[in-house]
Amino acid sequence: MKVKAEEEIYSKIIDVIQDIGGIGATIEEISKAVQLGRHTLSKYLNHLRADGRITYKQIGRAKIWSVSKSPLQHIFLLSEEEKTYTEKIFSRILSYMPEGILILDFDYNILFMNRYLTALYGDCIGQKYYHVFFGSAHQRQTLSRIAEVIDGSSEEVESREEDKDGRILDIKARRVENPDGSFSVIAIIHDVTEKVKYEQRIKNLSELHRLLGESVNRSYTIHQLCSTILKNLRDVISFDFGDILIYDPVKDMLFSYAQIGYPVGETSGAEEWKRRIAMEAIHRKEVIFFDFFDSRKGMVELELAQTAFRLAGEYNLQEVYAIPLKTKGELHGALLILTSSGRTISEEDRSLLEGVSEAIAGGIAKIKAEEEWRLKANAIRISTQPIFMTNLEGNQTYVNHAFMEMWGYKAEREVLGRHCSSFWKDEAKAEDVLTTVREKGTWEGDLTALRKDGSEFNARLSASLIIGKKGPFQLVAAVTPHV
């Protein structure tokens, strides 16, 4: 009964303060209305203030009491001396939480922001939420899903939004009832910009590796590979111009194999300037980055800087980024990325390019090896000297056209798969040659060949063991008939 009686007094005091008006009430005005002595009334007022249901402003020696529309706002407006022990603990917990706490009224006015948010936006108490966060003078539905809570269509919403400064925010907001019966909106806000950038970088890196893998598997020439790589890179990382130049370590020269974005009729001077920058990256074996609007970010050598500025003038550039393409210590070329004035390559994208540079170099190395092998295979195929290959067991796996003609065969099926000794008069000696090549790696000497029709001819045989990454796997031999 006592508790019920006290609660009735509390309610009466709050009603009196609200009836007196928005500017607040003095203790004398409240005492007269509720007919309680100053000492007893002071006790009730302090209980209500401790509960966060009312607050006061100190004007001289007088206290002006008012109903607290936001308990949190009430706590944070108090000085440390005025706060109770519980209020001090609570306010410190909210202030130093590792995510933002925001309280709005139903007209989008900011009633409270903790330290997390004031560090990002400053002290914006009393300002409009949509102006502080989105830079808009008027609320629009598209600005934030908090509008759904404001208009009552949702009790709680969660969203990911971009603020006026490009930050990515995770926002969770819901309606809360205040002690005076009105409603506010409380939102928990977390800046996830770095997290989103990291996730996007991982996604882009994965996508680039997938595209690079497809490019390598589907390309038959270095030009085709490099052109596809540049297109894939620009699809994932936005830039204006790009080149892949292939390096010849014997001649110490660069050859342009693919480029993207350049206007028709590129000048020879611009081509030479690009080569000089790319060659410098290859010789240094490190990335060269130059920002033409910040001379502190780039090359310090006068000659190289002049070259870069000539190139920048040719295409109105903001940045040049040259990456050596190397894998397993071997240099295969350089990737050159250029951006027009007013456009930059982010640190995340630069890191991404460096991350895939070895994969690009590996793809180029693979295609170069395949092209070299095809070239050698064509040379062997059209050679006038008979050439054949066998596996380690001596069964023939390849013969060229000259071999077929010299031995008198028409179809490869008559030759491939047969043991190489069957094509020589002395099969035992041919077996010994095979053993010697397997053991010593090479053999050269004279043998008597046996044609399909049984005729014979004397020949000089030179045989060698082919060794791959996993060890010996083939034998190759060339035959020179004696005249």
Commentary on this structure:
The chain is of the alpha+beta class and about 475 residues long. It folds into four domains: about 1-65, Arc Repressor Mutant, subunit A (Orthogonal Bundle); about 85-190, PAS domain (Beta-Lactamase, 2-Layer Sandwich); about 195-375, GAF domain (Beta-Lactamase), CATH 3.30.450; about 385-480, Beta-Lactamase, CATH 3.30.450.20. It is built from 15 helices and 17 strands. Strands 4-3-7-6-5 form a five-stranded antiparallel beta sheet. A five-stranded antiparallel beta sheet has the order 9-8-12-11-10, with helices on both faces. Helix 9 packs parallel to helix 13 (about 345-380) and helix 11 (about 270-285) crosses helix 12 (about 300-315). It starts with a helix and ends with a strand.
Overall average residue pLDDT: 84
Strand arrangement, major sheet: 4-3-7-6-5
- The rounded distance between the terminal residues' Cα atoms is 130 Å
**Radius of gyration of CA atoms, rounded to a whole number:** 41 Å
Instruction: Count helical runs.
Output: 15
How would a crystallographer describe the biggest sheet?
5 strands, antiparallel
Tally of individual domains? 4
Remind me, CATH topology of the largest domain? Beta-Lactamase
What is the second-level CATH architecture of the largest domain?
2-Layer Sandwich
